[in-house]
């Protein structure tokens, strides 16, 4: 069936490569538990270990440092909770967890869980207007009392605005005090250069479905000297850190997708940067008052993910824009797809200093290996009409983008449907606001 839309939500998940589909299907047809000792089991184990070596080479790690998981969320949970528990067990004084205010919910929610249930003290690392952690503040937060820090967690690249973080610099600061650093590199691996050993990180999360692999397979890179308490028990298949029968076919899919991404990364980066810049320049030239969110320098892929185009559209609600773009055959998002249905403005944009009104008008368009010039042109052609109708709908409703009250943030009310969006009534895909009221903010 021919595709009659422009898919511009590759940061949520991207199209599986045909080579990956073939490799996974071929492996699915073969029986064998890689933990079994008979012929079929040993054959499956050999496949797993070959994939482990392939993945390690692609990300600058040792094969023994690759711990397979069910995806990025599990890897983040294992790194942050497991790392925290191991450090606390070795030294009860290490209660502090340092993380940025723009992390993915797979890290934010875990940190908040530790603060609520496991006596952790959270130090939030603030970011500048581009969404990048302030190094001077990160250094001060670490050096204020390094003996109390259990671990630092800092994403490699932001999933909403695409800003690349100074992971190696923060890891260097932390290493001087023997503090482990975890980085969520889910958006970065396969898209920008990622070297585990070179970065100085202790733990690194990655997943297959962001780079053309299957959903449900990922990995946590764990340095050989790192201490991580397991979250699951019953087999200890992965270095006694993670238990569970390994998905041989899924691992084949991850290794194949990563090999493709690594092989084509330089040429694909150049191609995606050109498409991204055309999209951003084109949006700015529409005369709609649109601004670019995050750190953008045309032609650059060192400070922003090559395929990330983030727009701030004044006078619009992002969810209305999303539905109107969808109706025009352009599939995009307003924020993190992992929190679809939550109506609060993006916590990432609020942390960057935007007002709630500004943050509500966000639109994220992300490009991937199937993106074309036609997709970009379709998006640019759809934007003026979508913006005009979204603004008119807000005007007719008498509301439009506005600041939410404290009571609304505590218990969000359902948004009234407008004539423009009634046919596709669901709530916006956005991440929750980080509540800093009970936490220490590094400053």
From TrEMBL:
Its cofactor is pyridoxal 5'-phosphate. Residues 413-433 have a biased composition (Low complexity). InterPro entries: Aminotrans_V_dom (IPR000192), Cysteine_dSase (IPR016454), PyrdxlP-dep_Trfase (IPR015424), PyrdxlP-dep_Trfase_major (IPR015421), PyrdxlP-dep_Trfase_small (IPR015422). Signal peptide: none annotated. Keywords: Iron, Iron-sulfur, Metal-binding, Pyridoxal phosphate, Transferase. Residues 400-412 have a biased composition (Basic and acidic residues). Residues 389-443 are annotated as: Disordered. The keyword Transferase applies. Residues 7-378 form the Aminotransferase class V domain. It catalyses: (sulfur carrier)-H + L-cysteine = (sulfur carrier)-SH + L-alanine. The keyword Iron applies. Belongs to the class-V pyridoxal-phosphate-dependent aminotransferase family. NifS/IscS subfamily. PANTHER family: CYSTEINE DESULFURASE, CYSTEINE DESULFURYLASE FAMILY MEMBER. This is Cysteine desulfurase. It comes from Arsenicicoccus bolidensis. The lineage of its organism: Bacteria, Bacillati, Actinomycetota, Actinomycetes, Micrococcales.
